[in-house]
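Re: the 157-residue chain
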Amino acid sequence: MEIDLENLASALSRAGLTDADAPRRPGGEDVLRGFIRSAAIAGGTYALLAQKLRGGPGEGALRALSEEELSTELSLQRAYFALTGDTLALPPLHPSAPGVLSSLRSSAAAERENARRYDLAAGEFEPLRELFAGLAEKERRHAGILESLALRVFGGG
């Protein structure tokens, strides 16, 4: 999902946020930081899972999910910059996927939880409502893909 920074800046302005006080928006920075970190971890996890399934069913879908999470992370980084005027450097993240089936299942549950969190944030942060609502739908779609992969690759295990 691409962010139109001009429209976001306008929305921030309508919400009473300026360059001077945007960083003091209660909770906004923390919410974005958490979402950015979640997207980065998910992207890394899906890339790792795709490696584990190299040449097998599900590899392509997991690579596509990894790329979508990278796109999500970049969109959230743009929103963070528009809100704070700063970039967010994440510490090195070390995603893990101890077992493919359990990782697919836990990732699907994490995607559903992220969708719920995006829905809540959409109601709390007016300037980012459209972005968060779109990302909630994307997370729900990701959860469905992961659940479908678990069934397709492992027969539901």
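The domain at 26-154 is CATH 1.20.1260.10 (Ferritin).
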